Amino acid sequence: MNKSTWKDTAEIVGIAAIVASLIFVGLQMRQSHEIAIADQYQNRADAALEFYLAQFQSDQMLTQRASQLSAAAEAGRLSGPIADAVEKEGPEHVALIYLRFRANMTIFDNYHFQYEEGFLRDKAWEAFRYRLKGILADEIRAAFYTANPSGFRESFQELCGELLQELDNEPNQNEFGLLPEQTPSN
Prior knowledge:
This protein has 186 residues and is mainly α. The protein has one domain. Helices cover 79% and strands 0% of the residues. It contains seven helices and no strands. The longest helix has 55 residues, at 3-57. The radius of gyration is 26 Å and the shape is elongated.
């Protein structure tokens, strides 16, 4: 090999090394950006959870939520299962169910986001998906969701729609995945 061939080969190898390092830096920047977005989403979810927990702990806020439910029930703006629960259990009890529901849905929406972004493994997500399905198996919680699905991310809405469809096609189960007790036939 002559001197100019070695020089040309060295320049090509040098350029390839520079291109490879730029690609690597670009991939690192993209990953850092994705991690930052996931961290921001986690922070927003934490803030929402703190808001719901504050309502659990504040008698005044719980009373306000219960009076909103009472007013909506009187105006006929609540779906059947929610209206029935307000009548049978009282608005304070349903307000607690609602707050637990919103807290849980915030958590599971965050889990779903983390899974979509690749920060949650398949096996962990399968367990969370099963638990979310159990939450939506409860008719009052399902009614709270269907009353305002637009309060969640679009992909999470699609997931919840899939889960509700699965539940419609399965025997009735409670939130723990248990079938109702069957009475013996005579």
